[in-house]
Write a structure and sequence with these properties.
By secondary structure, the protein is mainly alpha-helical. The chain has a domain of about 130 residues: Orthogonal Bundle (hpI Integrase, Chain A), CATH 1.10.443.10. The protein is about 55% helix and about 5% strand. It contains nine helices and three strands, in the order αααβββαααααα. α2 packs antiparallel against α4 and α2 crosses α6. The longest helix has 27 residues. The protein starts with a helix and ends with a helix.
């Protein structure tokens, strides 16, 4: 996530816009359509900075964003949207029209392809939902309460959010199993029943 989000060159208008898109996708945990619908009025850059998202079922929720993301948005609006009205869309395409899902997917693929050329281990297919998924998993790893994560993601049912808990548990289980042979130092334990002296000693204790 970090390599992908920080790849666009913010010294150009296009690169700055792309950096804002990738950063918001991750830091706000928003759905793609929610990102496309954000207006300048939805962004609050105060001591606790937030973004209001228009979610499923015509419901709104407000999520907290990091200070770094707030600084990026503040700089972006001041530099490229100084006279914009509050109802104007925060993110547009290169023609200054409403951006859509395909446009976001194209941007993600553009930078993913660059990273994959540099590192073949980088995932071949990176889709929009991976940003939301990664944010959810990182929040779990940070020990954030599952109820807050549910509200942050805009899930109506906690069972939807629990998918991330199960995924987190699987990752932890895999990590523990991979670590175990290194800790024990042996993958196969000796069969003590074949040690006659030891078995005689144990039998004498009965």
């Amino acid at each position: 996530m970090s390599a992908l989000i920080n790849l666009p060159d913010i010294n150009t208008h296009t690169g700055f816009r792309h950096r804002v898109i990738l950063t918001l996708l991750y830091d706000s945990g928003c759905r793609v359509q929610e990102l496309c619908d954000i207006t300048i009025a939805d962004v609050s850059l105060n001591s606790t900075s937030t973004v209001r998202l228009h979610g499923k079922g015509d419901k709104y929720r407000t999520v907290v964003i990091s200070d770094e993301t707030a600084g990026l948005l503040r700089n972006y609006i001041q530099r490229y949207m100084p006279g914009a009205v509050r109802t104007q869309l925060l993110i547009t395409n290169r023609y200054h029209q409403r951006i859509d899902r395909d446009g976001i997917a194209y941007i993600i693929k553009k930078y993913s392809d660059v990273l994959r050329k540099e590192d073949p281990a980088f995932p071949e297919h990176v889709h929009c939902h991976m940003f939301r998924h990664s944010k959810s998993m990182h929040m779990l790893e940070a020990g954030i309460n599952i109820i807050y994560i549910r509200d942050f993601l805009g899930h109506e049912d906690i069972s939807t959010t629990m998918v991330y808990v199960r995924a987190d548990n699987r990752l932890k289980n895999d990590a523990i199993n991979k670590l175990a042979p290194k800790v024990t130092g042996e993958t196969e334990l000796p069969d003590w029943s074949k040690n006659k002296n030891l078995m005689q000693f144990l039998n004498s204790l009965k």
